[in-house]
Amino acid sequence: MVIPAPFSAEPGVDADTSKLDGMLLDLLAASGSDEEIEIIAQFKGSVRSADRQMLDDLGFERVYEYHVVPGIYARGTKDAILSLSGYERTFWIEYNYPMELLLDETTSVVNATNAWNRRIVDSDGRIDASLNLQSYLYGIDGRGVTIAVVDTGVDAGHPDLDYKEKTVENWHKNSPSDPWIEMENSDTSYGHGTHCAGIAAGNGDASAGRRRGTAPGSTLIGVGGDWTPVYWAVLAGMEWCYDNSKPGNNPHNIRVVSNSWGSEGAEYDPQDAVSLMTQALTYENNVVVCFAAGNSGEDNHDGHTITTNPQSNTPASIGVAATEHDGEGMAVFTSRGEKGNFDTYPDIAAPGVNIWATKPRGTWLDLYQSIDEDLYYMAISGTSMATPHVSGITALMWQACPELKVSNYHGEYNGTDEEWYEKDTTLIHEIEYIYKMTADYIEPSGDNGVPDESDSGIHGRRFDYAQGYGMVNVDRAVAVAMTLHVLRTADNNGDGSPDNPDASVDRALEIYNDLLKEGEVDGATDIIQTSWRGEWAHLINQSGNPGGAAQTYETEQAHSVYIPNGTEQVTLTFQYVVANFEPPTLASVELTCDTNGDGSNDLPSQTGDTDGTKVYVVDPSGSDTGRMWHFNVDGNAMGFIDSPDEEYPEPTVQYTVHVQVKLPASGEHLVDFYKPRSSVSPYTFGDPSPDYQDGTVYLATTFYDMSGVDTSNVKKDKGSSDPDYQFLILVGIMVLGVMVGHLLTVGTRKKDV
Q1: Residue 564 covered by a domain
Q2: Is residue 295 part of a domain?
Q3: CB-based contacts of 620: which residues, under 8 Å, 6+ apart?
Q4: Residue 490 belongs to a domain
Q5: Which residues have C-beta within 8 Å of that of residue 367, sequence separation ≥ 6?
Q6: Could you read off the pLDDT of 315-332 as tens digits, one per residue?
Q7: Is 361 in contact with 648 (CB distance < 8 Å)?
Q8: pTM to 2 decimals?
Q9: Is the domain of 26 the same as that of 106?
């Protein structure tokens, strides 16, 4: 092809600029012929020895070679790049551009706490009323699912991200020539990945559960390094995820890859290496890939241009926009798509403003962004924070329905690509489809950042260029997934195999509301109980305040329990580790409790314990019942530094609290329902006391009732539009005489199978 000025190629070589991405073209236009530029070059089919030789002959330095996509990260001059574009085996060349890091109880805003706390009624009508002390939850919390966080690394030394327990693996790669190395703290310079990991799946131990992530039962894998993220590095991280999530080679059950990074706003390019890597993870490994939509939307509230991250616009990925902390509007900064250009819109939204999560201490974020004295948490904003919300929620979905897969629906589109709805690479995952069908669309109100006009999406649901389909609603999405699980695993004929393994999501959407129940669980007992755990820390700043006095920092362990009317006695058992050897620690701490709401501790001090167990017995007055009791932990601890390199010198004390409430021994007693929150523990039944007679306790609760799912009339997704939509389309053709393509509601076309 003809090469326009100012481009040139080496003598005798015709450059082909159609093989160069737009950012690289712009850079080449502004560069001198001898200026060295870093690129990712992809070759047709696979990387061959002739391709490596061509790079060498053109003077490139080969830095890193990928294998999931046939690409090589290399450095070369402008002239060499243009000559490489003319090489017949070159498929695509991209600039190794720097990636932007797309930086209090938001788990309740998205209704994750509802999913955690709902009891589960199985298909046989049995109620799981047990309490899982390992996660102090009994609903859907992500257990059995692993989230891979591709970012700057993860500090798995944080109490919420325990190495080898919560963060089961933590991989670090600092340069192309370095191997992947596993270590406890791989996030020592920037801190971004640690904060994101806590939002997705932190266990909340350093806050008595108050600042848990959206999937506190899930495990994590950190994949990154102390990068200022660049293209080669995040691509290598995604490749690691691909290699370690292959069917049959996925020991940790990696089902989500969370990416809170990206680049300047643009439509996705199907040839880009990240797009290809996303597709490989989704379509080959059945792994859901989440991407931040970007933070460049402040000057694009009218949608006049594209500011969304192109990686988030890949149809196979879930692009996440950021709402305000309370979910009432869109964050000022969240990137918007171009109005009317549907494939540039975010897919879904989640909270992204002032999100409290794990603090990466001693990092750039800690030093320059932290404005409080909390030892273990900090609040920052960005679509970086919205994305791990959705990544954690996606883990809940996988726990609810392990049979989820890629859907037959395509991403929204209204452009000029006539083959869009025929391509396998524009299909979305069932999880994304469910999110879109169950989201809460945020209405425009004043200056809340929501466009005045919306578009018509899948099945006529509203979506727009700022929020996509709206705020993700965990409770409803999980209910759909659980319904689908029942439909796909039902064995009505008793032959040991599911009757309808391909039951459709659409059928689950029709009936999932039947799962969302409120009612009472009854127990023949006079005892109800609850438990939680935490990790308290104590630090004396020996350098002192400006006035010279040393300053003491303690982590707040605020937690609440509802004490019902009629309570006769409350027994509190507080257990903690008095002495620890790794790290060396000595501690003497107390449980505190405000029973009457006056802000003071109403428990008597207890001393002399040597085994770390303190028992408090409280006989409450009538005014102390029918209300929340507020707990905390206070005391002293001493730690010994093993070496000058000790990362965190303050002693930490692990503890558990068990609350046992005794109700009258006879009669019926109803314990009221309260809205679940991460700082409030739910009740379950305990063994009857010695003086129990014939009493019954009723716990008002919510549950997922799977016993009522009708598995006899199961639709299979045939791959065409839903029957009702087909009928309307045919009628429209006959009456209006227009083409079918103009009648199809955007996004409702599916792949034929």
Answers
A1: yes
A2: yes
A3: 563, 567, 569, 570, 595
A4: no
A5: none
A6: 999 999 999 988 899 999
A7: yes
A8: 0.86
A9: no
